[in-house]
Amino acid sequence: MTEHAADDPPRPATGPDSGTPRPGPRGAGPLGPGAPGAGAPGPGPPGAGRPGAGRPGAGDRRAPWPPPRGGRDRRLVEDARLQLLDLISSGALRPGDRLGTERELAARLSVSRSTLRQVLAVLAQAGTVRRVPGRAGGTFVAHTKVDRDLSVIVGLPEYLRRQGFVAGTQVLSATIAAASELTAAHLALPAGGLVLDIVRIRLADGIPISLERVQLPAEIFPGLLEMPLGGSIYELLDTSYGIRPEDVVEHLEVVDASAEEASLLGVSAGTPLLAITRTSSTADGTPFEFSQDLFRADRTRVTFRTKADRAQIVRRAASERVADLRPAADP
User: Fold this and answer.
1) Residue 174 buriedness (CB in 10 A; 0-12 / 13-18 / 19+)
2) How far apart are alpha carbons 51 and 179 in whole angstroms?
3) What is the mean pLDDT of residues 263-278?
4) What is the number of other CB atoms lying within 10 angstroms of the CB of residue 203?
5) At what angle do helices 71-89 and 113-126 cross, to 10 degrees?
6) CA atoms of 214 and 118, how far apart (whole Å)
7) What sections of 229-317 are H helices per DSSP?
8) How far apart are CA 252 and CA 150, in angstroms?
9) Kind plus residue range of the DSSP H or E element containing 106
10) How far apart are CA 122 and CA 65, in angstroms?
């Protein structure tokens, strides 16, 4: 359908694409020597999501959106939005696919280009699509983000399964090596103590989500490298050695992907990554894990849950005086 004079003029997008903001000191990098985020849609008009969808994303029809003027325009935008969501949820358009030019997509949905711009603004605000500026850019189907909850101690495969993803792992290397000074300090080992050094890529629905390096004291876990390492290390340590994390300290920062890390994660060099450095200890305080995880920032959202400790909330005493240093007003 061609443009009609009755259509409203193009409107600017009402919300930008969402983005989510190497663990500690890199040393030899997370690969070791010799080794080869828009948040969830907010509440909006009630609508049926894609059947069986357990996570926010392309099939979620509850996208918040400012209603356009006029009942007819509102219906056009909503109908086109649902058509586009159906194309995504059916697999006709997959995460990472380019939607095509405005003219092509408007013809496909049988709407004007001004209506299409409103639809894309709504879906970009909801995180269903992402817009990339520039000649080589365009509008793409967004990847659903993995929610990494740092307040819960559980292996990444279990995180992925709970959110409806298909978890996968590629083991890049599994060796015994001398601990670096940094690793020895975190694991309370003597300088040069031996550690099991395991490097893996984690996949969500077949797409790389994180690059992780876990180091464990070799003396505590004999024979571990002969076991299957594609699942949860925590489950393996619990069932085979009776060791589980009771106290975990994690640090989060944003780093730029090196060329090697970018190649493994399928991003461009210099792309921001979420780096999580983790030290895990047993109930008696013995450290047994030092890990460095790099998560793709475009595929990951980090959640923190905090409960206030009332005993440490100090209220200002009723007798406390507040000094007012403002000059007195002239009479």
Assistant:
1) middle
2) 49
3) 93
4) 18
5) 60
6) 46
7) 233-241, 259-265
8) 10
9) helix 102-109
10) 5
CA distance 131 to 117: 12
What phi-psi label fits residue 110: left (phi over 0), alpha (psi between -120 and 50 degrees) or beta? Answer: left
Write out pLDDT tens, residues 139-164.
888 767 777 777 777 677 776 777 66
* 128-140 CB burial, b ≥16 within 10 A, e <16: bbbbeeeeeebbb
Q: Which of 12-26, 27-41, 75-89, 299-313 has the largest mean confidence?
A: 75-89
| pLDDT at residue 145, as a whole number | 76
Task: Enter the pTM of the model.
Answer: 0.57
Of 194, 147, 203, nearest in space to 175 by CA: 194
- Among 303, 155, 300, 291, smallest CA distance to 230 is for 155
Residues facing 274 on adjacent strands? 254, 295
Instruction: Give 277-327 pLDDT, tens digit per residue.
Output: 999 999 999 999 999 999 998 888 887 777 765 545 555 444 455 555 566
For residues 17 and 38, the answer to whether their CB atoms sit within 8 Å is yes
Which residue in 75, 188, 78 sits closest to 122, CA to CA? Answer: 78
Contact 187, 245 (CB under 8 A): no
> To which H or E segment does residue 250 belong?
strand 247-256
